[in-house]
Amino acid sequence: MKVEIKKVWRALRPTVKDGFTFNEIKDAVAAAALPVEELGHLQQKSLPAKGASKGELLDALDGLISREPDPDKAIQNLVAAMLEQNSHLETRISDCAQRFGWKLVDGQLRPLDFQIDDAVKDFSEEVKNLLRTAYRRFGEGDYSGAMTAVCSALDAVTNNLYRVHDLGNPNDDSYQQRVSRSFAVLEPAYRDKFNQMTDDSNEVNRLWQNYRGAINQAAYVMGSFRRNASDVHGVSACPPELIRHAIDSGTFIIRSITSETSENLQQDDAPDF
Question: CA–CA separation, 154 vs 127, rounded Å?
Answer without folding.
Answer: 9
